[in-house]
Design brief:
It is built from 8 helices and 5 strands. It has about 220 residues and is an alpha/beta fold. Helix 2 packs antiparallel against helix 3 and helix 3 packs parallel to helix 5.
C-alpha cells in the first residue's frame, strides 16, 4: 500500500462478502482513532442519510413479482452514494475528520458489475459522477469463505430475515468473493486484504498495524 494523506481528512472503507465482520471491525477501529484524538464518523452504504436509508430499505427488502431489477438496483446504489458523499462524507473530510464507511463504490463494482454482469464502463462513469476524484485512501477487504459468511448471516436471525441480496445463490456469492479479490489485485496501492475469520481482536490488531503503516 502507498502511504496515505491525513489532510484534508481520511476516508477508510471496509469491504467483503456477506458476513465478513465489517461492522465489528469498524466499531473497534473507530474507538481507537477517537482515543487518539481523531474526529471519526462511521457510516454505511447504502444508507447514511434519510434518503439513503429509505433506498436501503427498498434495495434490501422490496421483493415479490415487482422486485427491484438489476439495473434499478445499480441506480439506487448510485443515488444513495451521491447523497452520502455530498451531505455527509465530503463535509466531514473537508473539516479534517476520519470517515469509516461500511461498503462503498467497490461493492457496486463487484456486486452489480462482476457478479450481476452489468456494464462495467457504465459503472465506472457512475463512480466518476458520484465520487469525482475522491476514492478511499485505504480500503480494508475482509475475506471470508462463502460457508463462513452464510453461517454468520443465518446466525443473525434475531436481527430479522435475510435480505434479498443475502438470499442470492451460492454461485452469486462465490462470484462476489472472487470479484473482491480480483479488484484488490487490480488496486494493490489502495487495498489491504486480510482474513475476516478468527478472533475479532486479532483481526482488529492486524488492521490497526496496516493503517499505522499506511499513515507512516
Amino acid at each position: 500500500m502507498r502511504q496515505v494523506p491525513t489532510e484534508p481528512g481520511l476516508l477508510l472503507t471496509f469491504e467483503g462478502p456477506e458476513g465478513a465482520g465489517k461492522s465489528t471491525q469498524i466499531s473497534l477501529l473507530a474507538d481507537v482513532l477517537r482515543q487518539r484524538g481523531r474526529t471519526v464518523l462511521t457510516t454505511r452504504e447504502p444508507g447514511g442519510t434519510p434518503l439513503g436509508e429509505e433506498l436501503r430499505r427498498l434495495i434490501k427488502h422490496f421483493g415479490g413479482p415487482d422486485s427491484v431489477s438489476d439495473e434499478a438496483e445499480l441506480l439506487m446504489f448510485g443515488a444513495s452514494r451521491a447523497q452520502l458523499m455530498s451531505h455527509v462524507i465530503q463535509p466531514h473530510l473537508d473539516a479534517g475528520g476520519v470517515v469509516l464507511c461500511d461498503r462503498f463504490a467497490d461493492s457496486t463494482t463487484v456486486y452489480q458489475g462482476l457478479a450481476r454482469g452489468l456494464d462495467a464502463g457504465f459503472i465506472e462513469r457512475l463512480h466518476e459522477f458520484t465520487l469525482g476524484h475522491r476514492w478511499p485512501d485505504l480500503t480494508i477487504l475482509l475475506d471470508v469463505t462463502v460457508d463462513t459468511g452464510f453461517a454468520r448471516v443465518h446466525s443473525r436471525q434475531d436481527d430479522g430475515p435475510v435480505d434479498r441480496i443475502e438470499a442470492e445463490s451460492r454461485q452469486f456469492h462465490e462470484a462476489v468473493r472472487e470479484g473482491f479479490l480480483t479488484l484488490a489485485k487490480r488496486h494493490p496501492e489502495r487495498f489491504f486484504v486480510t482474513s475476516g475469520e478468527g478472533d475479532p481482536a486479532a483481526i482488529h490488531q492486524t488492521i490497526l498495524e496496516a493503517l499505522d503503516h499506511a499513515l507512516g
